[in-house]
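Contributing new records

If you add data, match the layout below exactly. Sequence lines come first and carry their own label; structure lines follow with theirs. Keep one chain per record. Anything else will be rejected by the validation script.
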Amino acid sequence: MELTRLKGFQDLLGPQARTLSHVEERARLLMERYAVGEIRIPLLERIELYQRSTGETSDIVSKQMYTFTDRDEAGTTLALRPEGTPGVVRAYIEAGLDRSDPEQRFFYSGPMFRRERPQKGRYRQFYQFGVEVFGRADPACDAELLVMIDDLRRDLGLEFQFEINSLGCPKCRPAFRAALLDYGRLHFMELCRDCHERLERNPLRLLDCKIDVKLAEAAPKSLDYLCEECRKHFASVVGMLDAAGVRFVVNARIVRGLDYYMRTTFEVTSTNLGAQNAVVAGGRYDGLVEVLGGAPVPGIGFAIGMERLALAMEAARTPRETLPRVALIALGEAAARKATELARELRALPLQVELLSTERSLKAQLKRADKIGANYAVIIGPDELARAAVQLRDLGASSQREVSLAKLAAELGAARQ
């Protein structure tokens, strides 16, 4: 049997892995500027966590989760995490923060798993970077998360479109839900099979159906049913985004289908991708902590699809700052000892340094330097050792000159500017 990777899974090699790491590094630096702390959650959780949070009618729970029965006496059903928010909420409650210190700001990063149809930018193992904020119900918090995403967009040199909506609250949302249910019943024969099955239990799913798009466009809009308090909240969010210079559109089809999601909800798309262009999604979930057994603490968050963001960078050909690469070529054992010492000094500048195999000829090592895309080759042999110097070859310009060891760091350091 040939051993190959599973369908929907991928190996990230070299530049692909580096692009994903670069996106995560920029996001982590942004979290430090926004005073958001890190949280790490398990890959495995009880299936009930997702049934109660994500919802049994959701595609994630009903069709896409990887589950198995544990060997414990209770026969616990476990699930590979399909998303990050439920695990973060569980950890927040389990640590007692919902009662002792409710206002918390966390970010998480790592792989998620969903058994869905693979396509470009969508895999069965995929990576998310997410932010969750607890204990804040004010519109300034909603706006801050959207500004945060816009700051990341600027850091990465990308163009995004922000789409926002308000789902109302427990006071005004029931009227919207009832209107949507009536609309769905009226057009029942035109709905797809999935909408037939979930209409009575979760009519809001009609709005994000990928098949019944035309029906969804003519459906009742949540903004028409907002109470005065929710109108003020949404107007405040919109005003703060305008003040911060975040460009957005209001899209009535942006929803979260479960009852504990309320008020602000949003989706961010990239202009550099095709049909699968959503890179960030999020919203306010003021009832979720209580649903999972915690105190009635408000919450809001978002998740970034890292593969989609990496694809957007590649499509935009966004330049990424990289360190100059140096191939260090040593000829002979004594030169190899000096080269090992020299490599540490050059990496501290910092530079990318690869110490090539001393068992190869000079010609073979120069060929390797060209293959790895080195900008410079630093050559040191017995003669250079005797003169306390190296041969510095600029591989782009095809030029070479002798540089003293005392001045090498300064010469290569200047190349970084």
